[in-house]
Amino acid sequence: MTNRKLIAGNWKMNGSLAANEALLDALLQGVGAPNCDVAVCVPAPYLAQVQAKVAGTPIALGAQDVSAQPQGAFTGEQSAAMLNEFGVRYAIVGHSERRQYHGESDEAVAAKTAAALARGITPIVCVGETLAEREAGRTEEVVKRQLAAVIHVNGHCISEIVVAYEPVWAIGTGKTASPEQAQGVHAVLRAQLHHAASEHAAGIRILYGGSMNAANAAELLSQPDIDGGLIGGASLKAPDFLQIIAAAR
Ligand code: 13P
User: Fold this and answer.
1) Best mutation site among 231, 235, 241, 244 for ligand 1, i.e. most ligand atoms within 8 A of its Cβ?
2) What is the pTM of this model?
3) Of residues 97, 104, 129, 166, which has the active-site annotation?
4) Per-residue pLDDT averaged across 132-159, rounded?
5) Which atom of ligand 1 is nearest to the CA of 174?
6) What is the number of structural domains in the chain?
7) Residue 103 lies in a domain
8) Which of 93, 103, 198, 226 allows an S-S link to 112, with CB 3.0 to 4.6 Å?
9) pLDDT tens-digit series, residues 60-87
10) Is residue 68 part of a domain?
């Protein structure tokens, strides 16, 4: 089974009204009718702006996080219902920057995954090992533990999630996992999904993220278990992001 690939930009905490306008204008001009699904995951203050820009285009709107809570006294958080009001289709959950700087545990990531699913938002669940974990030979153990936490999300089918493998040592460092290294981990994740839900495993998209760029995208995306990309830095440059989209078929 070959999945339609998903190329998702994670803008992280970058952008401005003017910069977003220019970036989206260039993307919309160049994107045409892509051979893959495309999304941009934008900072929360810009959801309304980007929703209006991408409505009716091939670019879907994503958020970078979602609260596990439905409402109430959770200062600074955004609920899945709020994201819904802005036409949000995807929400990144458990990005390594949130795990690292905001102390998000596997359990918290699972609760966020459930909250997104309950509102029909596709969670892009991030897993990935640190350099120390890789060097200690713990890559498989870490990513399997992180994925296991979201596999049995109450009442929802695992087929509704997107997984993103993002080795922490490759994020923003210019060090990309080699296609073989990435494929190796993706195959481990695929096998784990197969064990949990054999009928759905092949159809669950597993994205690669970590210094994916216009030059290395085609080779990464040609690996059998790499179903797309979650792109940080290169998603802020329209020509680069468009080249990555063109490489996904
Ligand atoms: P870079 O593409 O900048 O390495 O970031 C990857 C990432 O963290 C996407 O979520």
Assistant:
1) 231
2) 0.97
3) 166
4) 89
5) 4
6) 1
7) yes
8) 93
9) 999 999 999 999 999 999 999 999 999 9
10) yes
pLDDT (0 to 100) of residue 13: 98
Q: From the CA of 213, how far away is ligand 1's center (Å)?
A: 10
Q: Of all protein residues, whose CA lies closest to atom 1 belonging to ligand 1?
A: 232
The residue segments making up the domain with residue 223 are: 6-247
Residues 161, 204: Cα–Cα separation, whole Å = 7
Instruction: Residue 242: give its domain's CATH number.
Output: 3.20.20.70
Ligand 1 atom with minimal separation from the 96 CA: 8
pLDDT 10s digits, 191-241: 999 998 888 899 999 999 999 999 999 999 999 999 999 999 999 999 999
Question: In the annotation, is 95 catalytic?
Answer: yes
Q: Which of 77, 95, 102, 200 is catalytic?
A: 95
Q: In ligand 1, which atom is closest to the CA atom of 211?
A: 4
How far apart CA 69 and CA 72 sit, in angstroms, is 8
* List of residues 6+ apart from 171 with CB closer than 8 A: 96, 97, 128, 209, 210, 211, 232
172: alpha, beta or left? (left if phi > 0; alpha if psi -120 to 50): left
Residue 134 contacts by C-beta under 8 Å, 6 or more apart in sequence? 167, 169
Instruction: Answer yes or no: is 1 within a domain.
Output: no
